[in-house]
Design goal:
Oligomer: homodimer
CATH architecture of the largest domain in chain A: Orthogonal Bundle
Number of domains of chain A: 2
Shape of chain A: globular
CATH topology of the largest domain in chain A: Tetracycline Repressor, domain 2
Largest sheet of chain A: none
Strand content of chain A: under 5%
CATH class of the largest domain in chain A: Mainly Alpha
Helix content of chain A: over 70%
DNA sequence: CTACTTTTTAAACAAGTGTTTAAATTTTGA
DNA sequence: TCAAAATTTAAACACTTGTTTAAAAAGTAG
């Protein structure tokens, strides 16, 4: 019962590309098949249904997105350095995959908690012992004493939003892609300085 | 040739609600008509087509969103106080309309520049002379010397993202609506402090 | 009341949707 | 080599989509 993985890989590649670009409702099974250069029926033969394929794709995207973050958390660095590297990595990742945050936020908002639990990323974070490190850094006075949700929100807001709002900002300010990329490189420095200053106040 | 505005108003109300919640591709003309308690054909009779209705709705939403910002810009306050009030107003607006940023960013990204030019909001900002005020504040040393795009990005990121990511954060941290609202109230204070400290460094 | 316009309605249209079917083809294992 | 299994295909399925049509209803003005 050896399966032809190449066909499934083709479908996954095309589906990931199309789903991220247009969302679940914005594309059809036939469009995915066309992009993969395959017959429509193959999508359901290999993946049962469009929504099942979608679940696999989004789980995959989230996994890939989470892995690079976890690497930083698991490393043996101070929280301040972890934050610096995290921002750096986020901007790197998002430069390559600018549509991913929008995709995750929009499509995950439609799912219920049970789906999210299946992804099982929470345990990975617990394993990284990042919560203990935060608690300790706050006791030391190294890290500002605000809750973890807000810390995450502050970092994510300043990393993700500039990529999410890219089409809008580009339209408003008439910036071509290369100019906006320069803007983002500059912005990353501002964001890093601002967040580090705020989260890790020196005395 | 007096038109029954009530019917058009009903369609606009339902369309705005449904479009914001589900996006252009996420809903059907029939769903909008059903929500308005009207016959499907009335949508096209009064608004020509679904996409025409959508253009009117999104232009309307953007206008409403922009107006409250412009009020702040036009007021006679220092940039620091304008920033404080702007953040306050953004959080107020977004508490009432949490789905609007996602809606605007997603759907405006699909439109081209010509559509955006039709909205004609740029002139309003020029009229408010906010650009001159920024330039002067930077010469004074009151405002940090970074470009306007980044200033806007910093403020918008920290105001909009917490609302855009709400479903995701709620799922991750198992927070009910009221708890997340408390979180946002807290977060607004952090954001204000962080942004003011960074944008308006005291000496 | 009557002739006319505007509004509303149910029904139909062609096109596209996700999915299934059954036949054709390819691959597999003995 | 050859039957059994897995894969691929074209075609069809029932359903929804945005939109149009033509008749009915409501409203308007002389």
């Amino acid at each position: 019962m050896e399966r032809d993985l190449t066909t499934e890989a083709k479908i996954m590649e095309a589906a990931t590309r199309v789903f991220i670009a247009k969302g679940f409702n914005g594309c059809s099974s036939r469009e995915i098949a066309r992009e993969a250069g395959l017959n429509v029926a193959l999508v359901n033969y290999h993946f049962k249904s469009k929504s099942n394929l979608f679940d696999i794709v989004i789980a995959n995207v989230i996994k890939g997105f989470t892995l690079s973050i976890l690497d930083v958390f698991k490393s043996n660095l101070s929280l301040e350095n972890k934050t610096r590297i995290l921002i750096e990595k986020e901007y790197d990742f998002l430069t390559k995959h600018p549509d991913v945050p929008n995709f995750i936020i929009n499509e995950l908002g439609k799912k219920d908690k049970s789906f999210f639990d299946c992804l099982d990323v929470a345990n990975e974070f617990i394993e990284a012992k990042i919560f203990e490190q935060v608690e300790n850094a706050q006791k030391n006075g190294e890290l500002r004493n605000i809750d973890l949700v807000s810390i995450m929100l502050l970092i994510m807001s300043n990393c993700h939003f500039p990529f999410m709002a890219k089409p809008m900002i580009q339209t408003i300010h008439s910036l071509e892609d290369s100019k906006y990329q320069e803007q983002l490189t500059l912005h990353k420095q501002y964001v890093t300085e601002m967040l580090i200053n705020y989260l890790f106040p020196k005395k």
